[in-house]
């Protein structure tokens, strides 16, 4: 069966990663969470003291990019790969609210995006990959055979994120989560370099009121149609 590239873009907390993991597992493809990469760079910046009072000191971060080593290491117990920053497993740290508050600012830095996009394109050289993020179908893989753009109301996405963080033991407030979601939407959609937007040939998928299983089945069947057509 011929392999294709599946690019999933969309707003935060729309379930991109969940769908991408499901598709990758079912198709026996490689899954790459590009958001984890940007979160890891953000964590690096925070630990290095390049973030103060919600502001990113860009120049020292840009100057330190060569010191940032990112890789995904497959965890057989979990069934998916975890993010490692300079040989340290940071999967849990990068999912915290403190990182979420700063990741959009780090992601809009041109030099950061260029470094990570180059890494992502290298990962997808042989196809057979499912990658999710903000600019996968528009910048990373503009020629991807299957592009999905996921969206949902800010309120629904905030509820999902709120429950997720509570389950991880974080002390958070729904109002703060909603504000963060809306702020990230604005920054991601209006940044100068690689803004979040729907590719012209992407399927727009609003999952505000759709269950995970229905969502997966629809996208999986569509993927199979494309794969069979490409074969």
Computed over alpha carbons, the radius of gyration is 17 Å
The CATH class is Alpha Beta
What's the number of structural domains?
1
How many individual β-strands? 10
Q: Which stretches are poorly predicted, pLDDT < 50 over at least 5 residues?
A: none
How many separate helices?
9
Q: Describe the strand arrangement of the main beta sheet, using strand numbers.
A: 2-8-1-9-10
The biggest sheet amounts to: 5 strands, parallel
CATH topology: Rossmann fold
N/C terminus separation: 7 Å
CATH architecture designation: 3-Layer(aba) Sandwich
Query: By CATH's scheme, which homologous superfamily applies?
Result: P-loop containing nucleotide triphosphate hydrolases
Strand content: 15-25%
Order of helices and strands: EHEHEEHEEEHHEHEHHEH
Shape summary:
globular
Overall average residue pLDDT: 93
Fill in the keyword field for this structure.
19% strand; 3-stranded antiparallel beta sheet; Rossmann fold; globular; 5-stranded parallel beta sheet; 48% helix; alpha/beta; 231 residues
Description:
The chain is of the alpha/beta class and 231 residues long. The protein has a single domain (5-226), classed as 3-Layer(aba) Sandwich (Rossmann fold), CATH 3.40.50. The protein contains nine helices and ten strands. It has helices at residues 16-27, 34-47, 58-63, 97-107, 110-123, 136-140, 154-167, 174-190, 212-230; strands at residues 5-10, 30-33, 51-52, 55-56, 70-75, 80-85, 88-89, 129-133, 146-151, 203-206. Helix 2 packs across helix 5. The termini are close together. The relative contact order is 0.22.
